[in-house]
Design a protein that fits this description.
It is a single chain. The protein has about 475 residues and is α/β, with parallel strands linked by helices. It has two domains: about 270 residues, 3-Layer(aba) Sandwich (Aldehyde Dehydrogenase, Chain A, domain 1), CATH 3.40.605.10; about 190 residues, Aldehyde Dehydrogenase, Chain A, domain 2. The protein is about 40% helix and about 20% strand. The chain is built from 15 helices and 22 strands. The protein has a seven-stranded mixed beta sheet, sandwiched between helices. A six-stranded mixed beta sheet has the order 9-8-7-10-11-21, with helices on both faces. Helix 3 packs across helix 4 and helix 7 runs parallel beside helix 8. It is globular. The protein binds nicotinamide-adenine-dinucleotide. Nicotinamide-adenine-dinucleotide (NAD) binds next to helix 7 and helix 8.
Length: about 475
């Protein structure tokens, strides 16, 4: 834990172990904090706020730029820590650290572009001036599936805007957050500007975040259930809120698409991070004329994916986060099969060759998914591609939109009019058209409905941390 510029190796609740999901081994022990530390950290952030917010944007930008350079220079080392605590293959971990660094660079640049406005008045003696000011102390809660990029996606814009922060990373993956905070300390961020509270029990800390009057903004990434609960309480106390929550992305392969290209795309995005991504396709709508070639290409590629410890060479798919995640995926597959789904490949937990020590599920392709199956409605967060054959464009749009979530959607088509109609008609925050990676530090990331509110990254990202102040001048 890091509070008011001091590292604590133990908290009021002692320490807790961080386990490697690939083999169950203890990777490290970290301080276990509680309400006491959350309160102290919030107070430290409140104390640091006047000075930090009064720094010039150029000074804040320079510190963020230094943090960016330092993170890039430690990319390989931090990627290894990421794989140890989270499980994703080392190559994917390295890509994530670079993605995390991209947010620091982007917001180092955006810090200098928090422009105000002058607005013409109807009165000749009046002038309107608008400026944007930092909201104040930010409480940030981050998830385990992207343990470093979700930290910088919040801390980058918050620091650029002039806010001070208390960060609570996920209990499964605090180590990357610790490394990131070390970097902020090394580059000379003043005491109290970033505080880190690690804990095995997030509930009391979350409660403190949403009730403490010194906190002005909550930024949360995680499950819809927890996000709704925290956002409700925070809103009740008039705190600003942004949430990135769950998803249930449709992936539509139209009748004019190249099925091989689409299947390659699906394999890459669906099995990314073992399916543990909020933008992971959960329903793969394939035009009935394309199902056979699509299925064949997909199954051919998926059955070659080797599962194992992400630090070993040739591993394409890592473990799930814990045994509960394996049980959830297994239950969804069993439910689908019992209701008539075809198992094209995979379909079971992996327990041979040492994999029984970790939380592995075979990369799986199911076909003939129907709306009465759990997987059609509930987020899987695991390595299962669920194919839903369809026959009509209008039907597929209605089926794709028939979800309480609204984060990401994907379309494969070679027809420009169809692409535009689907882009406009899909009720989601992020639409990939023949593109499986519609995310970057420069692009707005976020969803609608049960997928949350607010946007991260891009020009928009910094406004989540700013208030608008109007000045009316009579001259
Ligand atoms: P979770 O909501 O239980 O945990 C996420 C974070 O919230 C962790 O830091 C956890 O410690 C914290 N948390 C849990 N209960 C809390 C409480 N009462 N008060 C304060 N903090 C609390 O989520 P999970 O089930 O571990 O993670 C998977 C979910 O996260 C999925 O549904 C996924 O879609 C979502 N997610 C979304 C995004 C996104 O960008 N939209 C990214 C990653 C994960």
């Amino acid at each position: 834990m890091f509070i008011k510029g001091q590292w604590l190796s133990e908290g009021s609740q002692g320490k807790f172990a961080v386990l490697n999901p690939a083999n169950g081994e203890t990777v490290a022990e970290v301080a276990n904090g509680g309400v006491r530390e959350a309160k102290t950290a919030i107070e430290a952030a409140a104390e640091a706020f006047p000075d930090w917010s009064a720094q010039t944007a150029h000074k804040r930008s320079a510190l963020l730029y230094k943090a960016y350079e330092r993170l890039v220079s430690r990319k390989d080392e931090i990627a290894e820590i990421l794989t140890l605590e989270q499980g994703k293959p080392l190559r994917a971990a390295t890509t994530e650290v670079q993605y995390a660094a991209d947010f620091l660079l982007w917001f180092a640049e955006e810090a200098k572009r928090i422009y105000g406005e002058t607005i013409p008045s109807a009165r000749p003696d009046q002038r309107f001036l608008v400026r944007h000011e930092p909201v104040g102390v930010v409480a940030a809660v981050t998830p385990w599936n992207y343990p470093i990029s979700m930290v910088t996606r919040k801390l980058g814009p918050a620091l650029a805007a002039g806010c001070t922060i208390v960060l609570k990373p996920a209990e499964a993956t605090p180590l990357c957050a610790i490394e990131m905070v070390k970097i902020f300390e090394e580059v000379g961020l003043p005491e109290g500007v970033v505080n880190l509270v690690t804990s095995s029990d997030p509930k009391p800390i979350g409660e403190e975040f949403v009730t403490n009057p010194l906190v002005r903004k909550l930024t949360f990434t995680g499950s819809t259930a927890v996000g709704k609960m925290l956002a409700g309480k925070a809103a009740g106390n008039m705190k600003r809120v942004s949430c990135e929550l769950g998803g249930h992305a449709p992936f539509i392969v139209c009748q004019d698409a190249d099925p091989v290209h689409a299947a390659k795309g699906l394999q890459l995005v669906k099995f990314l991070n073992t399916g543990q991504a909020c933008i992971s396709p959960n329903r793969v709508f394939v035009h009935e004329s394309m199902v056979e070639p699509f299925k064949e290409t997909l199954a051919g590629r998926v059955s070659k994916m080797k599962a194992g410890n992400g630090l070993e060479a040739g591993i394409a798919i890592g473990p799930l986060v814990n045994s509960a995640a394996v049980d959830k995926v297994d239950a969804q597959v069993k439910d689908a099969v019992a209701k008539g789904a075809e198992v094209v490949c995979g379909g079971e937990q992996l327990t041979d060759n040492g994999l029984e020590k970790g939380h592995f599920f075979a990369p799986t392709v199911l076909n003939n998914i129907k709306p009465n199956m759990t997987i059609y409605r509930e987020e899987t967060f695991g390595p299962v591609a669920a194919i839903v054959p369809y026959s009509d464009d209008d039907d597929v749009l209605a089926m794709a939109n028939d979800t309480s979530y609204g984060l990401a959607a994907y379309v494969y088509t070679q027809n420009l009019s169809r692409a535009m109609r689907l882009y406009e008609g899909l009720n989601f925050g992020i639409i990939g058209i023949n593109d499986i990676n519609p995310s970057a530090a420069s692009a707005p990331f976020g969803g609608t409905k049960d997928s949350g509110m607010g946007r991260e990254g891009a020009r928009e990202g910094i406004f989540e941390y700013l208030e608008t102040k109007l000045g009316g001048f009579s001259i």
